[in-house]
Amino acid sequence: MGTKNKKIIIIGCGDAGISTAVTLLRMSKDAEITIIEREKYFYPRCPLPFVIGGEIVGTKKIIKKIEDMFSGTDIKIIHDTVLSINPEENTLRTKNQVLEYDYLVMATGASSHVPPIKGSNLSGCYTLRTIEDTKKIIKRIIDSESAIVIGGGAIGLEVASAFKNHNLDVTVIEIMDYIMGTSFDPGFSNIIEEYLTGNGIKILKGAKVNEITERQDRKGEVGGVIVDRKFIPADLVVFSTGIRANSELAEDAKIKVSPHGIVINERLQTSIPNIYACGDCIEIKEILTGKKVQSGYGTQADREGHIAGINIAGGKGIFEGTLNSVVTKAMDLEVGRTGLTQKEAKEAGYETVVGVVKTKTKPDYYPGTKDFWMHLIFDVKSERLLGAQIAGGEDVVGYVNLASMALQKGNTLEDTLSFKYSYAPPICSAPSPFVSAAENAYKKLNRLRKIKKAKEKKLDVKTKK
């Protein structure tokens, strides 16, 4: 379709790089495709906390040799490190050679961010980004009794749950006033916190780590942390304090970057048209607000790589942006969100009303029913759905995906109220929590409008006097 005999180089073989390569294989059979990747194996990062927790036994099930993934194809795999890119000459330099390209795809991913805390380099302090990190943490658990997780986001809570599976004394330290603060509003965060603390995980909120201390009897080994001048012992510390885009290569090549990552257009092109970028290394926009954010989810990376591949092959793919849809599991509690939180909506200029429901996943009379919570956020003016926050013992991902589709379609409160759902006692409860939450929002909206109308009437009377 436009790439016949063209040389295409993909830097990185994560979700985004693989998706680009697979798309090009299908759409550009005559293209000469090369993947440059430092590691010998591909593995998804999402399962790593569950390998630590023992739900997935060992790492062998999640890793694949990159050559095996592309056996039977003409894709060339080079295990090397890219040192520099020369966009003017359409070349790049690795440790061992110089390569020419017609199209370049940067799928360079991201790296764990560790705050500048004294003692963070002590033995027993880890981040969780790679298979090697996973193996080191599992080995450390054997001789540990207590663990501290710094950061109360999704990964941090997954890691804390994994440690609890090993009967460790677990403390989560979160600098914000509530856990998962970038994904949920305080009221919904409380649901998650109450569940975790009820299952033995300690949580410190609004807390700052001053220092990581060394054991007195073992030089170079972590012994605990000092939080707001209080000492907490720990045999193991994991930093779950976010990621930073690997955009240095792009920046050195004078490709436009931002604090969030490599800047791209809706076709995944960088500021240099024959260089594309996708995955955790790029900056993308939120669909509902237009705000620029870092791309950080595997599902997004897969979609971005697919779009990049389509466009390199001569197609017309468009990446619309993100709704920040995410699901995770902390112990036996599933949690998820999509769209905007109340805080994000307010910052974007919306006045919101929130529909709230607490129900069960099945009828009370059916064995195995579990608690289920849903908050739906609507714009008061347009009544458009803006976001959803969901938690429960099961079924969360289905409702997150349903809400995500509703957001993409611009569904309103009326649309949500008229949602047609199915029901069977062994599978779900009735009415659907999606409709129940919308009904709660409808009642609140009517009440709010009555109050506003009364205030306006009172003001009008005063004006006439």
Explain how this protein is built.
With 465 residues, this protein is an alpha/beta fold. It folds into 3 domains: 173 residues, FAD/NAD(P)-binding domain; 115 residues, FAD/NAD(P)-binding domain; 122 residues, Enolase-like, domain 1. The protein has 12 helices and 29 strands. The strands form 8 sheets. It has a 5-stranded parallel beta sheet with strand order 5-2-1-9-22, with helices on one face. Strands 11-18-12-13-14 form a 5-stranded parallel beta sheet, with helices on one face. It has a 5-stranded antiparallel beta sheet with strand order 25-26-29-28-27, with helices on both faces. Helix 1 runs parallel beside helix 8. It is globular and about 75 Å long. The mean pLDDT is 95.
| Name of the level-1 CATH class of the largest domain | Alpha Beta
Number of strands: 29
Low-confidence stretches: none
The major pleated sheet works out as: 5 strands, parallel
Helix amount: 25-40%
Number of helices: 12
Report mean pLDDT, rounded to a whole number.
Answer: 95
The CATH architecture designation of the largest domain is 3-Layer(bba) Sandwich
Brief sketch in words of this structure:
The chain is an alpha/beta fold and 465 residues long. The protein is 29% helix and 28% strand.
Give the arrangement of secondary structure elements.
Blueprint: E1 7-11, H1 15-27, E2 32-36, E3 41-42, H2 48-53, E4 64-65, H3 66-69, E5 76-78, E6 82-86, E7 91-94, E8 98-100, E9 103-106, E10 110-112, E11 125-127, H4 131-141, E12 146-150, H5 154-165, E13 169-174, H6 186-198, E14 202-205, E15 209-214, E16 222-227, E17 230-233, E18 236-239, E19 243-245, H7 248-252, E20 257-258, E21 261-263, E22 275-277, E23 282-285, E24 292-294, H8 298-312, E25 326-330, E26 333-339, H9 342-347, E27 352-360, E28 371-379, E29 385-392, H10 396-408, H11 413-417, H12 433-464
Parallel strand pairs: 1-2, 1-9, 2-5, 9-22, 11-18, 12-13, 12-18, 13-14, 21-23
Antiparallel strand pairs: 3-4, 6-7, 7-8, 10-19, 15-16, 16-17, 20-21, 23-24, 25-26, 26-29, 27-28, 28-29
